[in-house]
Design a protein that fits this description.
This protein is mainly beta. 0% of the residues lie in helices and 48% in strands. It contains no helices and ten strands. Strand 7 (66-71) and strand 8 (76-81) form a beta hairpin.
């Protein structure tokens, strides 16, 4: 299993970012996929998940602001983040499980004025 995240950066509060995760080494289209994050000094927290049929589900903290999607033809998972807040600052990982046990190297998102 290989997961490679990208798209992070530094934005001001209220800004937007789109994260991507390219997957390989497994049947991407056959599994649910997840985004998890690790804020500075804290543990991993689940952010969002998506079923094989592209039904998304979200943590309450990001509902209405983040949108998860996937392109099975490209083995790619996405996370569109809007109305970003300082508390969204974290290292973001894509994962094959909600706990984040199998994840990539992560991409840093910093929301700061």
């Amino acid at each position: 299993v290989q997961l490679v995240e990208s798209g992070g950066g530094e934005v001001q509060p209220g800004g937007s970012l789109r994260l991507s995760c390219v997957a390989s080494g497994f049947a991407f289209s056959s599994v649910e996929m997840y985004w998890v994050r690790q804020p500075p000094g804290k543990g991993l927290e689940w952010v969002s998940g998506i079923t094989q049929r592209s039904v998304g589900f979200y943590a309450d903290s990001v509902k209405g602001r983040f949108t998860i999607s996937r392109d099975n033809a490209k083995n790619t998972l996405y996370l569109q983040m809007q109305s970003l807040k300082s508390e969204d600052t974290a290292l973001y990982y894509c994962s094959t499980n909600a706990s984040g046990a199998t994840r990539g190297q992560g991409t840093q998102v910093t929301v700061s004025s």
